[in-house]
Design a protein that fits this description.
This protein is mainly β. It has one domain (2-116). It is built from one helix and ten strands. The two termini are 19 Å apart.
């Protein structure tokens, strides 16, 4: 399992300037970059890890107060350099977690699974 530490998750549930794309991203303490995005009219989710984009058909995301767990289908492990799980430890303000959740629900709608712990 990959691990990443970040100060905060940055979420945009519906970016009107980007054709209503939903996007979640963060940067790690060591310069890593993670991003999930999806346009409302597309079936696939795009995952970018260390600036390398991949498209996924399904994934599971679990959001907690200080962690975000991203689980990929076995066939999509190449998107994370051969790993099928990424655990992100974050210090996102509790007041911003509702927007993070809304963004993840928009990204995963009809193509993935979302859980809140």
């Amino acid at each position: 399992m990959l691990q990443l530490k970040t100060d905060a998750l940055m979420a945009t549930p519906c970016d009107e300037e980007e054709d209503n794309m939903a996007m979640l991203c963060c940067h790690g303490k060591n310069g890593e970059m993670f991003m999930l995005s999806r346009y409302p009219d597309e079936e696939e989710v795009e995952l970018t890890w260390d600036y390398e984009p991949s498209t996924l058909d399904g994934l599971k995301i679990t959001l907690g107060a200080t962690t975000l767990l991203v689980e990929l289908a076995a066939g999509d492990a190449d998107a994370l350099g051969g790993k099928d799980r990424l655990q992100i430890t974050h210090d996102t303000a509790a007041s911003e977690l509702a927007e993070v959740e809304e963004t993840l629900r928009n990204i995963l709608k009809g193509t993935g699974t979302f859980a809140r712990i």
